[in-house]
Amino acid sequence: MDKELIDTVRRPADAEAFKMEQLSEAKKKIKKVLTALAEAEKRKCIGEAEAGSIEAVGKAKAEKMRLKPEDYQQYGEAAKTTNALEALPKFFTGSGFKSTSISALLGFVVVHQEDDKGRESLDG
Fold this sequence. Notes:
- It comes from Danio rerio (Zebrafish).
- This is Flotillin-2a-like isoform X1.
- The protein has about 120 residues and is an all-alpha fold.
- It has helices spanning about 1-95, 100-124.
- The chain has 2 helices and no strands.
- The protein is rod-shaped.
């Protein structure tokens, strides 16, 4: 009777429990794989978006550089002077000058530039 109970109830129950454990483990593994795939797809999308952004910035910078010579030709000396004056604050702030020194230096540059223009008209 005990053997009959084991054969008819216990073994099928054990087999069903084993089956359920295996299915549960498989579902966990599938979930891990799907999570990893989703994470990989997320990183891929972020990477593609960043690459597109970097490409757009690079193209814009290249176009700006391409147009610079045209600007210099079109505006001549005024464009060069403007670019130099725009670059001066960056240069001086990086080198530790005080703002009063920068103002004095810019005044010196402007005065001497005007003197040079006056001399050119006298020489010419």
